[in-house]
Amino acid sequence: MSGPDAREGLVDQVREAAESRVDVVVVGLPGSGRTRLLGQVRDVVADVGFDVLRIDAVRGEGRPLESLALAGLLSGPAAPSALAAASDQLVQRVAARRTVLLVDDAERLDETSAAVLAAVRTRADVSVVATSRPPVPGTRVVDVAVGVGDTALLTVPPLAFEDVHRMTVELLPGGVDVDVVGRVFALSGGLPGIARTVVVAARRAGRVVPEGGRWVARQDLVTPALAVVVGRLQEGLDEAGREALHLLAALGPTELAAALQLVPWPVLVQLDDHGLLRFVETEGRLVVALFPPLLTDHLRNADRGARGRRAAEQISAAFGRSTDVAGGRRAVLGSPLRWSTSPESAAVLGRLLREQSRTNLLVRRHAWEREPTGRSTVMYLDALLGDGAPAETIEMVLAQSRELAQPSDAPLQALVLTWEATYRALVLRDAPAAVRLLAVARRAHPEQSAVFDATQEHLRLLGVDDSGAFPPPSDDGSDLVGRLDPASASSSSADAQVETVVALIGGEHLIAAGRMADAATALARLALPTTSPRRDGEALGPLARVCTGALDEGTSTAMRLFDEAQGGLDQAEIEPHGYTVALGLLLAGRLTDLREHLTIMFALNAPSPLRPQPRAGLLALGAFLSLAEHNLPAARSMTEQLEALDLRALPFPIARPGPAHAALALASGLPPEQAAAPAWRAVAGLVDEGWALAAVFDAALLVDLHVDPAVAARAAALAQDAQGSLLPLLGRYLEAAAAGSATALLQVADDLRAGGLLLHATLAHASAVRVLRRSGPPGDAVHEAARLTELVAGSGQELALLVPSAAPTADLTPRELEVARLVAAGLTNREAAERLVVSDRTIDNHLYRIYRKLGVTSREDLARLV
What we know:
Elements: H1 6-19, E1 23-27, H2 34-47, E2 51-56, H3 66-70, H4 83-94, E3 99-104, H5 111-123, E4 126-132, H6 140-145, E5 151-155, H7 161-171, E6 175-176, H8 178-188, H9 192-204, E7 208-211, E8 214-217, H10 227-233, H11 239-251, E9 254-255, H12 256-260, H13 265-273, E10 277-282, E11 285-290, H14 294-302, H15 306-321, H16 323-328, H17 343-370, H18 374-386, H19 391-404, H20 410-426, H21 431-444, H22 449-462, H23 478-481, H24 493-512, H25 516-525, H26 536-548, H27 551-567, H28 571-587, H29 591-604, H30 612-628, H31 632-645, H32 658-667, H33 672-689, H34 692-702, H35 709-720, H36 726-739, H37 742-754, H38 758-775, H39 778-795, H40 814-824, H41 829-836, H42 840-854, H43 859-865
Parallel strand pairs: 1-4, 1-5, 2-3, 3-4, 6-8
Antiparallel strand pairs: 7-8, 9-11, 10-11
Helix pairs in contact: 1-2, 4-5, 7-8, 7-9, 8-9, 8-17, 11-13, 11-14, 11-15, 17-18, 17-29, 18-19, 18-20, 20-21, 20-22, 20-24, 21-22, 22-24, 24-25, 24-26, 25-26, 26-27, 26-28, 27-28, 28-29, 28-30, 29-30, 30-31, 31-32, 32-33, 32-34, 33-34, 33-35, 34-35, 34-36, 35-36, 36-37, 37-38, 38-39, 40-42, ...
């Protein structure tokens, strides 16, 4: 996600270096945004008083000083022997004041121009800021140009996913499916120039098309038009390096041991020096992949000629002689140490997941063709769906499974029927067909009716089936819940797998109804058969722990399982565990960590089609963070996709579009009551049905926008009967918000903070400040605003995004704030008046109003607040 721009921090570092007369080399691949960054540096250093000269380096083979001449820095032609004369001219040009020389694409400088810059650097009060592609150090002309004084080396960071999202929305007006942005990010690795080119080329080639009000990808986004980008990335490589690119592209992300059988270390070092490799560490192994991933996809598609054939033959020969490494080349990874530490690693892993998806499809198809049992059918159907197979193929497999079904395989054939029902409801969006299928299945297999009832309950919990034809056997779901007891499971392996599905859905019901402690305890006891095609319980358990209020325990467990899912390339489990991690980070107020995690999640782009609720949750969390960052286009795009999923996702705390839709309506100018009314009506419906988890969480987000006292009070009453500490605490927050009591809000804010729920603690505290400003003593409002500001600043997690209006100085005018900051910095009234070119009396009047608004009586108090 976005947030404090890492590139803005880079610009500040460059400015500070220039002020200290330290040269800077900003290193980045072509397409990394080096030129745009240099433009930002120019504006910043000019604002602080530097003279700025910019040189756009060009390749002037045989024409020394060409870059300086084109920049207008030389008054006449200069020969190679005129280096001193060129230096004199440039020194005269910069003699008047401190100057910063900006050199773009410094690797293109000729040696004479580089020598002139070095000479000027020693003779004049100048700093050099150069951009260059890697390798640096290692590019001779760059080393010469900035090799005189102290030099800092800075690397251009990749864009966060949210920034790529923002760019994509600008290029594709209207809604953009997150899948499209995920693909763009995965190809570009977050390099903005490449991301932009991918989007423009894909749109021109018809690879992305508008459908249902938003842009979707129906084909691969790699087009022949990207050849120019790939060519620029290869500049500077020798023939061995170019050949290695084709070999590694054919291999895909692979273990280092396998890569070294084809590419020797010196060539790998060359590629790494040029920024075209990424090494991702796992337990005891390294995976090596080309970067950006576009290189792999483009070279694979382009390798139809002699170079591609040669690469294929080399790979075949190498691994034909070494079968152990050939097998290891596609081995499942161990639990990773660093998969999730950067968007670049996420892009590499996303590429590896797609490779693994194709491999799984081949393996599972072979297993199904060899022995078409119920289990192999479900596994094959999952692989087909995960690989994006057309509906016709899936229908064919389903038809064949019905023809080949054996009576002895009845329990697992029941799972095939539940898979089909879920597929029709969630993927084909045909809930009536799913309900009819389950009804037929009950009649054909009455002994398996429990799993069919549970499946329909699952669809009801997701909100895709509201027919009510087959509600759970009891209002509290006790018939399903009873199956959570491992002692009730059958001794048959097949029956145990069916019991597992029933038990897991019982756990979903418990969580949705607010019985999280019961769910967490029961799910922890449930032993999932190793052959079970459903592993949902592994994700439900940590989610239940988070929802009881055990944030640290639940989040850390989910993070461990998330890492294991990545290490095992288990695409179906990545988003379920990733959602729980994201939820825990949000509730704990760890917004910086949440942004980084969501960037990884969307960059991985690993949805599970039959488990859309984690994707809904991630979209809801992404929309929430985008709204906090005032990134309305991204928030709107994510909310539209969330609405398109059309899920209630009752066992998931934050996964419904109502609160985000209300916030967007408020931002568009609607009055708060009108903007939030539809979402509050939805909460009232959830309360009526007794779904405590969804009702309380949605209400706790809505009260920050507008309070419906009646519905909030009803949700609060429902929360008090819930298990654990989390929902009761949120219920007290709702009760205080409904009453409009600053005292109650402050008390519950402290209690929420003590419980580790920093998100809602901050929101409750900010609400109390607003109440005090409207109707409380001014001094109390100032005191609590200052305390909140101090608490927010101490978190180190950008909680200020949630409460920009809570700052003590929020009520000051721009001029009053300017005066307050000068006085807080220690200036006297007269000094402040001279700085602002006003009279002493004007400063006195400003300070009088500042003191009244802030409730302070001294400069010391003012300094503490400001």
